[in-house]
Amino acid sequence: MLPVCQPLPVVAKPRPFDGAEWLFELKYDGFRALAYMEHGRCRLVSRNGHQFSSFVSLASSLAQIPHEGGVILDGEIACVDAKGQPRFNDLLFRRKEPRFFAFDLLHLNGTDCRRDSLAQRKLALRQLLNSGRRSAAIYVDHVETEGAALYSRVCELDLEGIVAKHKDSPYLSENT
User: Fold this and answer.
1) What is the DSSP letter of 27?
2) Are 114 and 5 in contact (CB under 8 A)?
3) Residue of 42, 78, 45 lying closest to 62 (CA atoms)
4) Per-residue pLDDT tens for 43-54?
5) How many H-runs (helices) and E-runs (strands) does the chain carry?
């Protein structure tokens, strides 16, 4: 049985910054979700703990990710256009097939990964998603150190924003 996890909140900062100890990711415009995969099935759960029941095809695709003892991914359900830019209205009105943009790995094959560093979890996540069967999961890559430059580019492209995460941080909340 997989543990129940609470997604870490996103906290707004007044301005972008740089830092060698930070990883910076694109913030997708969609629905934040945890994907619980176990016994050939996937449950998509909102940050408020409610199961998304309208993404049956997406959940079925995610269930194909190879694992032996369960997987929990943190990510964003989003639709993107031909250029790869997130389009929230396409998701909201179900105009395109959604994808799961996975940015963190919380549990893998019976091991709770939340105490590992973010850098370790992202490496394991990349390996997991590149390890075989195709699914609707897309690995969210990151930029190291150069948060201000990434933010500037995101503004030029009129995207949602960026997220900064300390690369040595565990995935812990007060409920962990």
Assistant:
1) P
2) yes
3) 42
4) 999 999 999 999
5) 4, 9
